[in-house]
Automatic annotation (TrEMBL):
<feature type="transmembrane region" description="Helical">
    <location>
        <begin position="125"/>
        <end position="150"/>
    </location>
</feature>
<dbReference type="InterPro" id="IPR046664">
    <property type="entry name" value="DUF6773"/>
</dbReference>
<dbReference type="Pfam" id="PF20563">
    <property type="entry name" value="DUF6773"/>
</dbReference>
<feature type="transmembrane region" description="Helical">
    <location>
        <begin position="25"/>
        <end position="43"/>
    </location>
</feature>
<keyword id="KW-1133">Transmembrane helix</keyword>
<feature type="transmembrane region" description="Helical">
    <location>
        <begin position="96"/>
        <end position="113"/>
    </location>
</feature>
<keyword id="KW-0812">Transmembrane</keyword>
<protein>
    <recommendedName>
        <fullName>Integral inner membrane protein</fullName>
    </recommendedName>
</protein>
<keyword id="KW-0472">Membrane</keyword>
<feature type="transmembrane region" description="Helical">
    <location>
        <begin position="55"/>
        <end position="75"/>
    </location>
</feature>
Amino acid sequence: MNNLHNRLSGVNGKNKRVKEKEQKIWSEIGMLAGAIALLDVIIRGIMFEFPFKEWVASLVFLFIIILYYCIRASASGMLMPRIDTEKELHKRVKQQFTESIAVAFAVVVLTMYDRGIPHTFFAWLKMFLLFIVCGGVLFLLRFGIVKLSYRRSVKKESKKKSS
């Protein structure tokens, strides 16, 4: 990755200030490309209702940018601040649970808006199962991230104490 960065870079010197400026320019280019992709999806996909094949590449590009940002931000600890105590861990898990339930409820409401209100018992059962599965999967993912963040902070503290 560093080799690719050096090839794309116009400045290969050791000046830290110039490298920071160049990195800022590259990040602005990435944000501009993401904004253009989002604009393309909104205009061609939503407003003009062009066929899906015409704007799917912009949607995939936008998804890749978002996924890459989330992976990098979570790996660096930006998305989830340090969790130092057991009490803070329980508070964060409770917060993740309520947010997961809210997102699952929104998914069910949007599904009912798209397909209409269910009229049979099995249709309601499907909506309930959608709620449970969506909320459960989302909560398990978020719980794993919180637990990982807690373990990292506990591991760092134990290394500091042993030093």
